[in-house]
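Structural prep section.
Before we set up the soaks we want a predicted structure of the protein with iron/sulfur cluster in place, mainly to decide which crystallisation condition to try first. Input record follows.
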Amino acid sequence: MNDDIYSLYEKCELCPRRCGIDRTAGERGYCGAGTDARAALTMIHRWEEPCVSGSDAVKGSGAVFFAHCTLGCVYCQNYAISRRNAGENGSLKGLREMDAQSLAEEMLSLAGKGAYNINLVTPTHYMPVIVKAVETARNKGLAIPVVYNTGGFERPEMISLLEDTVDVFLTDMKYLSDVTAMKYSRTSVYVKSAWEALNEMVRITGEGPEFDEEGMIRRGVIVRHLVLPGRARAAQEILKKLYARYSDRIIYSLMNQYTPLPEGNPELCNYPELLRPVSDGEYRRAVRTLKELSPEYAYIQEGGTISESFIPKW
Ligand code: SF4
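Run finished without errors. Recording the tokens verbatim:
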């Protein structure tokens, strides 16, 4: 890969919003991102799926949480770092601007701390610098898998450019319909984009997931669905559609950790239906569907809804 990948910033169509603006000239699109990667936090992270985070007390996933987001969901649990103006006026203490060289060094540092993988959280708007950083880090000895941890709002043309960069796609399938996508994520093209991108992720990673001798994922696609309050039926339909299309070629992850946080995200108050956690009954209905489908690889969350303390402090 040569430096041409940076030219994608000049008429930015990295995500389905296709703003078409020149980020190299200082213009900012819907996401608000510049050209260097802004990372809000890097850490050894232990709260992803077990094949990503492991169960070791010291090791974990080497997470880089990027600021800004192409989706900007109204219920975002990382509201402080995802907004268009994230970090303005010094509001995020740990925020760092990283070019490809410094991002590569951060990846090597995480590997040195025992990371099982490099987990790029919300990476879409920084794809060019990420591609260069991974190439640089691998040339310097990075030998762990690279995980592309995305909300699923992707263009297949961009995903295909990641064929030599990404080993594991950890992606969402958030919505059954674009009516809901428009209401909660302000896009009318989420569903089409997410399915087309997922097709490309599955094509890239092959016939099914691969694991190492410790059970950690080496290659594959994990598809998450976060059940939203009042939307158990949508969760059931999404699971059925995923299984009909991909059967055992993907790993299913059905999440109940939706946490309403109106204190940190005042916008959420405009959506009263989202101001409560998912009920046990709603989640159980979705779990029942997953069990009926009985895929080879699937995760569910047990022991109640995840607590706010699991959300990093930025
Ligand atoms: S990555 Fe950002 S600027 Fe580029 S198309 Fe998407 S929202 Fe617009």
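Observations: The mean pLDDT is 93.
Flagged for discussion at group meeting.
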